[in-house]
Amino acid sequence: MQRDARAGRAPARTITILLMGLLLVAALAAGAFALLGAGVRGAPPENLDEAELLRRISVAPENAPDFRATVTVEQTLVPEGLISASEGDGPGASGPRSARIWYGGPEKLRAELQGENGDRVVVKNGPEVSIYDGASNTVRTGEGPESGSPSPEEAASPEEINELLAEISPTSVLRTGPPVEVAGRWAYPLTLEPRDAGSTLVERAEALVDAETYLPLSFELYAEDSPQPVARYEASDFEVGAVPERRFEFETPPGAEVIAAGPEGAPNREDREGRPEEPRVVGSVDEAREAAGFPVRGLAEPIGGRELREIRVAGDAAVLTYGEGWGTVVLAEKPADGDAAAPEASDGDGGADGPGGFEVPTVDLGGGIEAREISTPVGSTLSWSADGVSYSLSGSVPAAELRDAARGLLAG
């Protein structure tokens, strides 16, 4: 079993996640292009291979036209009660969530998220960002990062696209096909799926990419043995065109408390302790212990024989990566806050209090240690504290396999 991490380039998992993230973000921003028109306009566009389609997609999000739309999100990944409780809606809230979006370029965005216990409004106008929480009637203000030059982005070079395809090829299959009709527009189908279906709970991700703008018209994520997507975006009331400037001018609601963000550049804990902010790769668990300043531990029996591929240390935290691609398992560790060895239990059995009183399921790891467990159709997360260290173990694997690995770590 390999104990030392292999230094060098980022694993293909990183590139795969970036590609999926691109599809997700673009779908949220412009999925409603599919709703334009009642019939297909013009002859079918030319066929494109995967490399050329990726090249055109690479510039689409930054070069998107101004638009407005209503976006509805449906998902079964994160328990609805946990989302609702964290947003102040109460554990009973569930169902699709909608947001009204106005986009005026990289520096101008307004999103109004509708909730059962009050809406949330996010406005970015240049460097100024305002976030309103209707549940608490508070406004948080501050400055966001600059988006850079407003000039159009250049497409990725053929060499960069070929490198990306080479990175994901060992673990993933990317396919496109001839253009298809989608609600009056031509679109290219794009599918990304794991090469080894047994290494992950994800079956595939699908997108339809607009043949004119190269923005995804739809995005769906499927779990194994699930005929319906576990996450998808839909949009309506979509209009392309200039958005009035007043949409990006935030008005503080009457009686709202305004909370200004702290001074930019305030030192964080890593700065104060003299540790580097940027994560750095180390070659072994022993080296991670020395760099992080606490007893970093690796998995005694990595899940499914996954090798330790990389260890990164940032300040007093360490992240160990096992395997690659879709089946990657990540173990994150840092010194625990306080001396608690188990999550605080709720009044009922088998749960711990989470945000807003939502009961997060707990499991017994032995030795008086309990862990919070969140299991979804495409992956699971287990978190616990022991001997002054907090652990988080995540991966696209069944929750039972994470529990076995955690128990092995504690027994080692």
From TrEMBL:
Q: Which SUPFAM superfamilies match?
A: Prokaryotic lipoproteins and lipoprotein localization factors
Question: In which residue ranges is the amino acid composition biased (Low complexity)?
Answer: 142-155
Q: Where is the signal peptide?
A: none
Which residue stretches does the UniProt record annotate as biased composition, category Basic and acidic residues? 267-282
Where composition is biased (Gly residues), the residues are 348-357
Query: Where is the stretch described as Disordered?
Result: 132-159, 257-282, 337-361
Known InterPro entries for this protein?
A: LolA/LolB/LppX (IPR029046), Sporulation_related (IPR052944)
Membrane-crossing residues? none
Protein's name according to its UniProt entry: DUF4367 domain-containing protein
Q: Which organism is it from?
A: Rubrobacter marinus
